[in-house]
Amino acid sequence: GGPLLRWVSQPRTTWGATGYMRLVLNICAGLGPQVDRLEINPHLPPGMERLHLTGLRWRASTLDLTVTRNGFRTLRLDGREIPHVTADISGQHHIEATF
What we know:
By secondary structure, this protein is an alpha+beta fold. The protein is built from 1 helix and 8 strands.
């Protein structure tokens, strides 16, 4: 095809990246940090059935999050159903959120 162009990062574009990260973390994954808990209320856009995020740092923990659309709400931490993620969590964990 054509010439191979090298993409060059431009200054003052952090706002674009942070907007995208907010869309993914706060809207699609539904992460809502509170003082005493991490609420998870996902909203995947039409056509997107699953979202998997790994290595999310929250307080003293590292979380892997899988969001799946299936018609009913559940939230599981390492296989146990929970209402939300508590603030005292630490270490590596896997969260499954369905809606």
